[in-house]
Amino acid sequence: MNIRLPRPTTIVLDIEGTTSSTWFVHETLYPYSRERFSLWLTDKADHPDVLRAKGQIIDEAGLTENPTVEDLVNALEGWLDGDQKRTPLKTLQGLIWADGFNNGDLTSHFFDDSIPAIRSWFAEGIDLKIFSSGSVNAQTAWFGNSPEGSLLEMFTGHFDTENAGPKKLASSYSTIREVIGVPAEQILFFSDLVEELDAAGEDGWQTVGVRREGDQYYDRGVAGHPEISSFDQVEWKL
After folding, report:
1. What are phi and psi of 166, to 5 degrees?
2. Which domains does the chain have, with CATH numbers?
3. What's the pTM?
4. Could you read off the pLDDT of 10-49 as tens digits, one per residue?
């Protein structure tokens, strides 16, 4: 069933479960990063983002001041196993995935309706942005390496848990809104997670819940938010 909404000035997209399959992330990207945590913490230990992530791991995991690489990897793997959206985990994953995309190991996944919708909204002059728990590095690698090539030229902003805040807090959406400089009611957010939709709605954003049958959170529903299973179900009010 189609839904009709006021045409937004800005669309903000979640990735996992919304434009792309959560299972691709869990079954392809997570193992790829797990196999490379130790290598990056050893061979690229002087990289500024790795240094910052290391400090954050020590703080968040309560490690000693000079932990071993094994200690750091154990903390990362524990968070990964628990599907926790920890900033240092997402930072390192983003670096690793970006490297994998750049060297041809990886190509990002998109649902069949996602890229046509993105192209259509861009052609209409709607401002497009991303808010994902994945780091900005991961986002740019993802949208820069789609099956149809780079989509980055269509996006004007990327937000993650480090530059905006946790995705389930209304304050994060307030931060994004202030950066965008657009009234809340002119921003439309798509996500598969009801807690994220609730948080965006609390800040006054328009929201649409995306329910992809078979994807991770399908059975949880979207708790009263307008609901779609495909982006081509969205129409603008005249």
Report:
1. -60, 145
2. 3-20+108-236 (3.40.50.1000), 27-102 (no CATH)
3. 0.85
4. 999 999 999 999 899 889 999 999 999 999 999 999 999 9
